[in-house]
Amino acid sequence: MRVALLVFFISALSAAGSQDLEYEEPTVQLTLLVRNKAHILPLFLSYVTQLDYPKQRIAIWLRCDHSNDESLSMLQQWLERYAQLYHSVNYALDVETQSYENETVTFDWPLERLKHLIILKEQALQHARHIWADFIFFLDADVLLTAPQSLRVLTRLQLPIVAPMLLSEGLYSNFWCGMTSEYYYQRTDEYKEIYHHRKVGAFQVPMVHTAVLVNLNYAATRFLTFDRQRLLELQHSQQLALIYNGPVDDIIVFAMSANSSGLPLHVSNELAFGYLTPPLDASDSLQIDLQQLINLRANMVHDLGAVPPLLDYLQTHVEKPPKTKLNVDNIFVINLLRRTERREKMERLFDELGLEVEHFAAVDGKELNAQRVREMGISFLSGYEDPYHHRPMTMGEIGCFLSHYRIWQQIVERQLEQVLILEDDIRFEPYFKSNAQRVLEQASHTDYDLIYFGRKRLKDEKEPWVAGTENLVHVGYSYWTLAYVITLRGAQKLLAVKPLEKLIPVDEFLPIMFDRHPQKDWSAAFAPRNLIAFSAAPLLLYPTHYTGDSGYISDTEDSQQVVVPEISTEAGDPQLKSDRQQIFAKEGGNNLAQDLKLGESSHNNVLPQANVLSSHQEL
User: Fold this and answer.
1) Rounded Cα–Cα distance for residues 322 and 522 (Å)
2) Which structural domains are found in the chain, ordered by start?
């Protein structure tokens, strides 16, 4: 009867329109499973508490055991402050048992632990049915729901089982689009389309986990289970042709029970729901988990502009990494004074990553004109034109060059042996700090002047590995000056050729100086061309936006052009410098790491010694 009434109500709502009916939110049992997550709990609890769903419609089911950190006390404090706001709270906090008998380390998963987790999930499911909840929302403590409207959006989909798509490192998420005959993860093209929002909606998939909403108003949900034995009993009772012969695994068994019950599983990417940390292997340490949290917090700044605010009383539990200069003499970030939003965002990123950075006021192309350029003694390389648009330089490109040029001057004046120069429109890859230090350590055993941390390859040309290194290549023709390390000697070489007397864009100038530029007539104007340049492989950062992306702004391309009569303005084949990175065929396997793009990297994009693999899903 209850299901029939619900169906009638939904059809009436659809016919009459939601504005004609008073809608009462369904009841939800929020099932929280926590163990040894004190480092992530301040964010987890803050975002759960700040969900805009009516708390009187939420019943909390909370379990925490086998913990030996501050998780238990943190949960007790949270319950004291907020439990009375919810419809009901059913909790059990085991303060006695700190580990499993056969457990070697915290991240180990002996069979005893897996069976205990399955029992807890079964109990939660039964409790939700007992209290007549409309929905049960399973939520692991690795999940950070940064969108307050998450629960409203998910419940109103009225799907039997749906997961909010969560972002993580590389391509890791809480759903699969393919499953092998042995019940394990299988890569598919559709997965990337969903993950990158190339298509948006709710999509049927074979597996969801970690954050899963079940609509208990569907009668068939009474057959759902996480227990392998119960699944086998269900399949035998239904005389199914295919009987489950897979592992004792809660998420796989749940998916198989849904399949056997005729309940489709969906993942929704209609909202930027939030984030999750990838699971760890038994060989990993707590430091890896802490670093993953740093990566997620940095991604929040990239995606949302800032880490969403925490509950006030939990602020003191958050520690940010100590700031360093990555073993270089200084780090500069170039920023236009009028781009305060970029500067503030970068400062938040530096706080999250633990980088000590000096702000450098960029030369603003909007404040330049022909007379000022002449007064600076600047003249342009004869015959230069943009290789794609056949136009002269823009005032923005002049300002960009002067910004980098003035930092090179400071390097020489202050006798800085090694400097990292950053622009303010960059997105750091995970593990940036440790990977940057590893690249610099490898470079310390070689002779070099410049190392790209971010760039855009422009030619399908051989880029051999630097001898004795694992993450450095001899760089070919490239665009972008997003981030690079330059030595005192390198700065001296760049200044010595007097580039302001024959100015070209800075990302054309650098390839000329390491003699890999295809325009030999331009190159001939600069001598000696003896800059020793490498690139990190894989790259350590990328642009925040590309041409055509929402929010894309270019202060170099979208500015006034220099008037040079002899330059043709006929349109060629346009390819803005802010287009996506060029991807070329791999030569003997050497370019795999270089060619991985942001958001399409595997966990192996993390450099050696920082590699993280998932037990369920390796991407």
Assistant:
1) 45
2) 27-182+193-217+265-292 (3.90.550), 320-605 (3.90.550)
